[in-house]
Write a structure and sequence with these properties.
GO terms for molecular function: calcium ion binding. This is Fibulin 7. Its main location: secreted. Keywords: Disulfide bond, EGF-like domain, Extracellular matrix, Glycoprotein, Repeat, Secreted, Signal, Sushi. The protein is built from six helices and 30 strands. The chain is α+β, with helices and mostly antiparallel strands. The chain folds into three domains: 47 residues, Complement Module, domain 1 (Ribbon); 168 residues, Ribbon (Laminin); 145 residues, Immunoglobulin-like, CATH 2.60.40. The radius of gyration is 38 Å and the shape is elongated. The N and C termini lie far apart (81 Å).
Amino acid sequence: MLILLPGWVALCILQLALGSAQECPSHQQVLSTVRQMQKLLSAQEAAHLQGTRSLKKQLSVLHSRIQRLAGKHNDTCPLLAVPLNGRKLGRSARVGHDVHFICNAGFQLVGSESRTCRRDRTWSGTQPFCRSEVPWARGRGAAQGAISRPLQRLGGRKRQKLANPAPALVVFMGSFSPGIDECSSNPCANGGTCVDGNQRYTCLCPRGWSGVSCQSPVYAYWVTLSNSSFSRQPRCAEGRPGSRHCSCDAGFQMRAGGVCQDVDECQLFQPNPQTRICLHDCLNLPGSYRCLCPPGYVLHADRNTCEDVDECTGSQHNCTHGELCINTFGGHRCVRPKCPPPRHNTSYVKTSSFQCERNPCPTDSRACRLAATSISFHYLPLQANHTVPRVLFKMSTTRFVGDSLRFAIIGGRGQGVFAVRRSNRQTGELVLSSPVVGPATLEVELEMSEFSRKVLLGKHIFKVTAFVSQYEF
């Protein structure tokens, strides 16, 4: 840095060096001027140093942010597909996180029940799929007895007689033009629920109504079906002289008197779990049958099983602003996770929809330091009478700095059906230990504590809520 001295100072310094003091200021004036220049130089040097430090700090912050973004991008595994006729529990694909798979009722999981995202950004185990346990395609000749034809048409229906009408749900499919939301015009009458789909809509009809738009009373159709609808004359052909061959249409059986009587497939096959033809319920029709599903489900393409309607993704829920929609088997729930109120110098702030973090503690507050550093909320949909034991939830930490972790159930409703166990040094599991009859809502509060030489370093609270359906599918 170049500092220019005043011209008269430079000239006088030269004259002093030559031994001439003519027209020059005094020595005190020269020294004062030099000291001022030194102070100016020091101030400029300090400002330059401060600017350099500030620039280095900004570059360091920028470098850290870029590293974090790169780390987030590189620490995830590819997204896993949801198996057909099954569900995937867990959304995080980051290293160290688990994803669990379950199958709907009537299907068996083949493959890995749980998969973990490993450090090399690959998933452990193999991709699972759901294999049907129900013998839909097995031969029924032995069970049919005198029935003269195999069951080839698998429709959907529910056991329903005119004297005891109890229809649960009748589903009819409509279509709409691509890009148009037909549900916006409320096409379902008589209290029916419209579910918007891919190039189609579905009307979920309430009890007593049927039709594409739930426009027809159920009884109006069945009144026209007199007993004669379930019996008809056989088809006969003349054979050799003096002989005659008669047969019945598909779905009918020859009875005494030469009359073809309808075969009630629902009564014949549905009561036996080994031969049942409908997952939920069965309705007998002349020469055939139909499977029906309860509210919150639609009939699967196989016409026998029922699949859950996801009201949350289809915007068919009634959750208000600020509430979160949780899809369950056969319905949905609206939840509003809340952080606990301030208490004993301990307060929390919501950092995400399902997570609360503790605010910094006062230096002299022991109660605050012993409180949970974070609280998370988890909602699990369950089917009724689920096979046990069943791992529902896993707890772990990605930054393990202590020498031990402890897992425990510390509260909640329905604790008797849950248990906690350790799967490895850094992971604990919440296990369903007893089957649950639905519908029911179970709550359990879990604690994961981290210790170093028996000194508590921190703990996390998991608030788990399980919504148990009344159905087993």
